[in-house]
Amino acid sequence: MIVLGIETSCDETAAAIVTDAREIRADVVLSQLDDHTPYGGVVPEIAARAHLEHLDGLIRRAMAEAGIGFGDLDAVAATGGPGLIGGVIVGVMTAKAIAAARGLPFVAVNHLEGHALTARLTDDVAFPYLLLLVSGGHCQLLAVEGVGRYRRLGTTIDDAVGEAFDKTAKLLGLGYPGGPLVEKAAARATNPARFDLPRPMLGRPGCDFSFSGLKTAVRRHVEELGAPLSDADRDDLAAAFQATVAEVLADRCARAIRRFKEDHPQGGALVVAGGVAANKAIRSRLSTLAEKQRMPFVAPPLRLCTDNAAMIAWAGIERFRLGESDPLNFAPRPRWPLDPNAAPVIGRAGVGAGVKA
């Protein structure tokens, strides 16, 4: 089975060709970083226009790299949500057009399910497994029990961890995107233990997260140090922030592991996915936790942690071989929770970020 995957949910335009033998025959991603950096974040209208301008060319490139034509495809999969609705519409309409013109099945993929199933593409991980999904818009712990079967164990009551990285980078004057820049600054730190930051939710019952207080603590340190920050101040504070996030994520995961093992005594892997999963310090901390808990630890290759179309094609394959596809009147979804039965999480400022999906 050969599937074309299309990803346009945020600020990467991507196309990929993947087979049911877990072979990525082409994986093309065009970053819009230069378009959004002047604004300090993603501008939805700019993102949608960039997807519209570049997607057709990326699909042609992916097909050429894979050495196939449209007649060789068995299905077309595209991100159907959640995401910036303008970009999602571009990808969905392109996929529908190809499917209609070639008489192919169309599969609308939940972007979060793409991340959730990446470990099965890269490492053939068996169900069930425990997933920490961490990205710019989402921070959740989920029991992954099958394709389309996700049970949320915890989520954030305010900021997602990726948002916290971006906002911290802005406070430190590092720029955008925040995650890689904070990680680079932390690696340069000469005194990473210099700043003592709060550990939100650490040790508390449950598996939920909170990062807004941590972001506020960073801002207070920046104000006390005064502008402009020295290189040493910036690097040491970045290191303290990154270490704190890693500690909090490990603590929340440890609690989720206990719940997961109660429900699945036969065990399973601890998987981390999403853009923040590319952070090496976080990967190392979670790997150590999994080893102590005698669980396999799986983190996708760095290039498959950030948004990509290979994961969308693979999620499409997983669904299609179960006999699932979508009609051509499928409506793109700006919100699309993996666990629709999970109760909304209420944070200090109202409904938390856990319902963004």
Written account of the structure:
This protein has helices at 33-36, 44-66, 85-102, 111-123, 161-171, 178-187, 212-225, 231-263, 280-292, 310-320; strands at residues 2-7, 12-19, 24-31, 75-81, 106-110, 129-134, 139-146, 149-155, 270-273, 297-298, 346-347, 350-351. It has ten helices and twelve strands. The strands form three sheets. A five-stranded mixed β-sheet has the order 3-2-1-4-5, with helices on both faces. A five-stranded mixed β-sheet has the order 8-7-6-9-10, with helices on both faces. The protein is globular and about 60 Å long. 42% of the residues lie in helices and 18% in strands. Helix 4 (111-123) packs across helix 10 (310-320) and helix 6 (178-187) packs across helix 8 (231-263). The protein has 357 residues and is an alpha/beta fold.
Write a brief structural summary.
This protein has 357 residues and is of the alpha/beta class. It has helices at residues 33-36, 44-66, 85-102, 111-123, 161-171, 178-187, 212-225, 231-263, 280-292, 310-320, and strands at residues 2-7, 12-19, 24-31, 75-81, 106-110, 129-134, 139-146, 149-155, 270-273, 297-298, 346-347, 350-351. The strands form three sheets. A five-stranded mixed β-sheet has the order 3-2-1-4-5, with helices on both faces. Strands 8-7-6-9-10 form a five-stranded mixed β-sheet, sandwiched between helices. A two-stranded antiparallel sheet has the order 11-12.
